[in-house]
Amino acid sequence: MSSLKRLVILDLDNTLFDALGRWASCTKKLVQEFSAVNNIPQDTVHRLIKEAHGQHRFNDGAALVDAMIESDPAIMEGQRNLSAEWQLANRRVASNWHENSQDMSWMYRGVIESLKFWKQQGVKVVIETDCEVVAVHRNLYLLGKEAERRGQLEAASYIADLIDEIYCQPAIAESAIYFSDVESEAREILAAKTHIWDDRHYKPHADHAETILQRTGMAANETLYIGDSYKDGAEAASISPQIDFIWAKYGAQVTQETLDLYERVGSKSFTYGEGSVMAAMQERGIHPRITLTNGLNDVLPHFTWVDKARQVPVLNQP
User: Fold this and answer.
1) H or E, element range at 103
2) Which residues contact 149 (CB under 8 A, 6 or more apart)?
3) pLDDT per residue over 82-107, tens digit each?
4) pTM for this entry
5) Domain containing 257 — which CATH number?
6) SS3 per residue for 152-213
7) Are residues 119 and 214 in the same domain?
């Protein structure tokens, strides 16, 4: 495959930021608080979380609280008068999740540096994720806020300037407070760059990969696909010629405590953990061209990029 690249397709969760680590921390606290407020065992809370929609389970703890209460009549029956105090306590559980998710939206090393470099060189950057559109927009904005705090961006909304297109899944209704920490202008900018997969197919899906190449006007051999999951590699390999796959191994390195919690409440559709991802890739014959162990910007010296202003290759220099 060519070393000259003009398009980078990025996964979002666990490739740009530690989505699973944030989820585990927020969910662990939610389980403890919801169990205490509603006087039910934590095992029951785990079951209710597992039964909830993935958007709420993984990205919207405030909506998850409502969904758990509605799905288990025993919770309401246990509260004789559904007192204002009880309702307030559950609202506090919901708002705590929301605040915790703000505080724990941490980008991996080299993300903003890489996005800025590609922007400067005229390399197109696309995000493709199985995440729902509302979560994509909020998470990207929160990452922009972190970059603003670090002095990497002048404003949180500027993260949208570093991304050319977004491809993601449709969403169900979010909680009332979900976008309370996101500027409406930033949402509008991100929405204008977003294409929703209305067919509801998840990775890997050859039609999706072909669509991205067609819409960006790029060839497969000019493209990189970077992600933490074997599904990202399978998407890159779903078309012919294949797209070079770069494994973001750093995003697959998670704690056993996180894996144990996911086993109790998560979906079987996703595979996490370095060993499990490696085994899934081996089973499916997926061979990353490069493995990134430290951060996203480690990919920059390995390829030739195109300088937008000069329209000539920029050789292997971040």
Assistant:
1) helix 84-103
2) none
3) 678 888 999 999 999 999 999 888 89
4) 0.93
5) 3.40.50.1000
6) CCCCHHHHHHHCCEEEEECCCCCCCCCCCCCCHHHHHHHHHCEEECCCCCCCCCHHHHHHHH
7) yes
